[in-house]
Design goal:
The chain is of the alpha/beta class and about 375 residues long. Helices cover about 30% and strands about 25% of the residues. Strand 14 (about 285-290) and strand 15 (about 295-300) form a beta hairpin. Bound molecules: nicotinamide-adenine-dinucleotide (NAD). Nicotinamide-adenine-dinucleotide (NAD) binds near residues 45 and 133.
Length: about 375
């Protein structure tokens, strides 16, 4: 029998809207989900966004005060889709209130922030999901299986890239993302945190690294209202300094002995969501590009020399693909990855067994980011606190 669980969403910007749609769609893709999510309340500081949330979705309550949701007995699961500086206080309060938590990456601005939320979650015993959505792509799951079953041999080296142009325009306004007090470490929290999670998910722990970072666009016009990730200021205004990094590059040593790189930028002209990886082993290679989410480039077969690489369109035998499409080669979307995340959270709540990325994964990703920042500052190799 299916019972209902009430949903609260805190922060109705881009991610709050994506989470809301995922709750709405999850049971049509995963009819076995033992819990039926029911939208109850949204907490959002911007009045227009509050109105929009109620106009487009079935929330019965909209408030500017996120604490109202924690006192609301109708709510069992809360999404925290706020700017990074609020993750620690709000995430820990959600767990302390005994409500299950779906929180966006990077979970705060520092590894201490992520650990504080993890501690609150462990103390209260609630179930969680963290927004490391790229690991939910069926092709990424297939790559992970190929690596785990030894199809590539021993993994030797890899490269992860997270190159974006969302902040490449010099008139992109100074939203919370560019202020270290609100957005934390810039592109390292925004994109590198995803790359660090993917690297760990596919290849295990990183033991040490050496990194470099840069701010390429030093000043921007102020943000005048709740602006999107991709906005461009029309009226300009006096430029103000950017406080966190646009770019990061890193050499990694994995505990397995494999070597790797991460390169990431938010100001990379010509790169729209150029997110992906190339992974090489002694007997093969596999590559993935988010923009062609259903494809993997796979070179295996034991020839070593002149080994061909084939394009494989993943299908219903990979990850959660079968819940979306009946045959290989039909495109899935970014939002679909969030539906997978919502399903894993609801399964975790219903069964008590944790599925999908956890707060411990958020701490591990943040530890890689922390080591990168220390390395860039000290210009040395740094051990990762695993
Ligand atoms: N997983 C992903 O791929 C992905 C993609 C984008 C963003 N994110 C993460 O999601 C989070 C939110 O990012 P976004 O792009 O949705 O940002 P956004 O700026 O679009 O949305 C944030 C919302 O929070 C609201 N808000 C701010 N302070 C508030 C408060 N005290 N009470 C209530 N509402 C408040 C803002 O008005 C805004 O509507 C960030 O942590 C970001 O890193 C993850």
């Amino acid at each position: 029998m299916t019972s209902c669980i009430g949903i609260g969403v805190i922060g109705f910007g881009w991610m709050g809207q994506v989470h809301t749609r995922a709750y709405e769609r999850v049971r049509s893709h995963f009819p076995d989900t033992p819990l039926r999510p029911e939208l109850v309340a949204v907490a959002e500081g911007d009045e227009l966004r509050r109105k929009d949330a109620c106009a487009r979705h079935d929330f019965s309550t909209a408030t500017a005060e996120w604490r109202d949701l924690l006192r609301d007995d109708r709510i069992g699961v809360v999404s925290v889709t706020l700017p990074n500086h609020l993750h620690r206080e709000v995430g820990a309060a959600v767990a302390d209130a005994g409500k299950h938590l779906w929180i966006e990456k990077p979970v705060g601005s520092t590894v201490e922030d992520a650990r504080a939320v993890a501690d609150a979650v462990h103390a209260s015993g609630v179930r969680t999901a963290v927004g490391f959505n790229y690991r939910n792509a069926p092709a990424v799951e297939r790559a992970r299986a190929l690596i785990a079953e030894g199809a590539l041999g021993r993994i030797t080296n890899c490269s992860f890239r997270l190159l974006a142009d969302y902040a490449a325009h010099p008139q992109a306004p100074l939203s919370w993302r560019f202020d270290p007090r609100l957005g934390g470490p810039g592109v390292l929290g925004d994109l590198v945190s995803h790359g660090a999670d993917l690297a760990r998910y596919l290849l295990g722990d990183v033991s040490e690294l050496v990194a470099d970072t840069a701010v390429f666009l030093q000043s921007r016009p102020p943000a005048r209202a709740a602006v999107s990730h991709f906005s461009v200021a029309e009226d300009g205004g006096e430029l103000e300094p950017v406080g966190n990094d646009d770019y990061a590059a890193c050499l990694l040593r994995f505990a397995s002995g494999a070597r790797g790189t991460i390169e990431s930028s938010r100001v990379s002209v010509g790169d729209q969501c150029t997110y992906g990886f190339d992974i090489h082993g002694t007997e093969g290679r596999v590559s993935w590009d988010f923009r062609r989410m259903g494809e993997l480039a796979v070179g295996v077969g034991g020839r070593y020399l002149d080994q061909p690489t084939a394009t494989v369109f993943v299908g219903p035998d990979s990850g959660d693909y079968a819940s979306f499409q009946p045959g290989a080669g039909i495109a899935m979307s970014y939002d679909d990855l969030k539906v997978v995340e919502a399903h894993r959270l609801l399964m975790s709540v219903a069964t008590g067994v944790q599925y999908g990325a956890t707060l411990d994964d958020a701490v591990a990703s943040a530890a890689i980011v922390e080591a990168m920042l220390e390395s860039a500052r000290t210009r040395r190799w740094v051990g990762v606190r695993n």
